[in-house]
Amino acid sequence: MISEKMRNMVKNSSAIRAMFEEGKRLAKIYGEQNVYDFSLGNPNLPAPKEVSDALKEEIDGCDALTLHGYMSNAGYDDVREAIAQNLNKKYSTRYDKNCIVMSVGAAGGLNVFLKAVLDPGDEVVVIAPFFGEYANYVANYDGRLVVVKPNPPTFQPDIKAFGEALTAKTKAVIINTPNNPTGVVYDEKTLAALADEMRAAEKKFGTSIYLLSDEPYRELVFGVKQPYPALFYENTVSGYSFSKSLSLAGERIGYLAVNPECADFDDLTSALGVATRVLGFVNAPSLIQRAVARCLDASVDVKFYEKNGAALKAIMDECGFEYVEPQGAFYLFVKAPGGDDAAFCAKAKEHRLLLVPASGFGCKGWVRIAYCVSPETIRSSRESFIRLAEDCRK
User: Fold this and answer.
1) What Rg, from alpha-carbon coordinates, does the chain have?
2) In whole angstroms, what is the distance from residue 251 CA to residue 59 CA?
3) Is 374 a residue whose pLDDT tops 70?
4) Does domain 49-293 have CATH number 3.40.50.10330?
5) DSSP characters for 257-292?
6) What are 50-89's pLDDT values in tens digits?
7) For residues 343 and 81, what is the distance between their CA atoms, to the nearest angstrom?
8) How confident is the model at residue 96 (pLDDT cuts 50, 70, 90)?
């Protein structure tokens, strides 16, 4: 018999994955080309050529036993040093290899961090809307998720509400910019204000609060600058994934970068390595570690996503749907007519449109549309969206 904790997780399983599975079911009935699946943030672009070249070079140039064997829990020293120096070049930081822990994607990295720092009952603050799996990640280690209410129409953080959410039990804050699901980017003023509130809370309660910056969309910005959060707050751990920047979602490769000014730096980095081991990851995948170290300045074509977003926004404008202007990532956050996001997504499914209700992101009344799909999918979906809009007006 499964555990009660797991039973609840199964019951409240991710709406994103549920819709993705529903898409596969509908595709068998109507044909894949007749189902418009906007549910999952699965990149539609191929990995840059640099990745395949790097993989070939690693396979051809390394001893197979060494290449596929264990390494330290934190990852290969030279890979970690390469990432540290690349970050230093981009953001004028002061990382070295000891600041970097390779992870099984950003999700694995976030779980490693939370395993390392949370005691039962510790609080983790998130700002709605937020990636729904954060709730499960925190629950994995018996922490308590504290949600700061959404702040429409801009969906920038409500700084006052954020400050009020910090307590003596706050162990960490998770931010995600560019944001999933809104596409909103936190600017320098916002990051500085969040940092000020955390420092004030640390002083008030005599505690240390970590900022866990979830950054899988860091390079995917449209005409704006994405500031590097670690430059604004000393106790920052940045969680990164190559899933989006290099279209390597299934390879599960990323890293944690610990600010060298972070409280208890030595203890924290040691704990991250041990957490990687005891959670069963042992280490991040060996071959793809070595490959991404050769591709740190490579990227997919961000303009592809920007064009997709523009095409989808044109359809939303034609339909009269209200949405948040995305500054990054590859999601359009659309207001559900009538305010019931679940009902709107159910109605959309009647037109073979698969959208995700934002209740699972802590923000009722909105839906997320992932436009990391083919341009043809967006073009072909237009008539279905128009019929959906007509249904909503009846």
Assistant:
1) 21
2) 16
3) yes
4) no
5) EE-TTSTTHHHHHHHHHHHHHHTT--SS-HHHHHHH
6) 999 999 999 998 777 788 899 999 999 999 999 999 999 9
7) 50
8) very high
Comparing CA positions, the residue from 103, 106, 116, 148 lying closest to residue 130 is: 148
φ/ψ of 335, rounded to 5, equals: -75, 130
Which amino acid does the sequence have at 163?
Answer: G
Instruction: List phi, psi (to 5°) of 324.
Output: -90, 135
Cα dist. 197→134, 160, 269 in Å? 22, 9, 25
Residue 150 has what DSSP assignment?
P
Angle at 143 between CA 333 and CA 163, to 5 degrees: 60
C-alpha–C-alpha distance, residues 375 and 36, integer Å: 11
Please give the span between the terminal C-alpha atoms of the chain, in angstroms, as a whole number. 47
Cα-Cα-Cα-Cα dihedral sign, residues 135, 137, 143, 146 = negative
Max intra-chain CA distance, the chain:
67
Nearest-5° Cα angle at 371, 370 to 374 = 130
**The total number of residues written for the chain in this structure:** 394
What angle do the packed helices 49-61 and 286-293 form, to 10 degrees? 120
Residue with tokens 């976030």: 110
CATH 3.40.50.2300 is the classification of domain 4-47+300-393: no
User: Token pair 């309660």 is at which residue?
Assistant: 205
CA atoms within 13 A on the CB side of 164: 8
CB count, 10 Å around CB of 339? 11
Residues 6 or more apart in contact with residue 31 via CB below 8 angstroms: none
pTM more than 0.90: yes
Q: How far is CA 342 from CA 178, 293, 354, 391, 393, in A?
A: 25, 42, 12, 15, 17
Contact criterion met (CB below 8 Å) for 300 and 43: yes
According to DSSP, the β-strands at 353-354 and 36-37 are parallel
pLDDT of residue 194: 98
Count of other CB atoms within 10 angstroms of residue 110: 26
Domain ranges in the chain are: 4-47+300-393, 49-293
